[in-house]
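Question (not urgent): is this output format expected?
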Amino acid sequence: MASSVTILIVDDLSDMRTLMNLTLKRNGWNVLEARDGQEAIDVARQHQPTIVVMDYDMPTKNGAEACREITSDPSTAHIPVIVYTGHASAHIKEESYKAGAKQFLVKPITPSQMRQEIQNLLNGSNLDH
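Got this back:
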């Protein structure tokens, strides 16, 4: 039976997208990919993923900028967004939450941690930071 869960992975690094794609598909989830913030917005509008998981540090639009557009657009506002980064900055964390992120993670993130964060959102928990 095909999963009804679709995760949009957004990262400008192809190796990171590939690793996350393999990790999430092991859970039986469908996976879409985008290379930058603008592409994430376009893919989210077109495909309506269940959850968006995106890097903060990307060209075109950073993760917080893309998150803000996704969460403020009536056609995609229902989609929870997880923002992750390699920078443990309080400013980036605050900016991401103000943009509408449901969760903020700092790398390194283990595959099991990422799966658990997504599962928490799917279960309706962890929706308030």
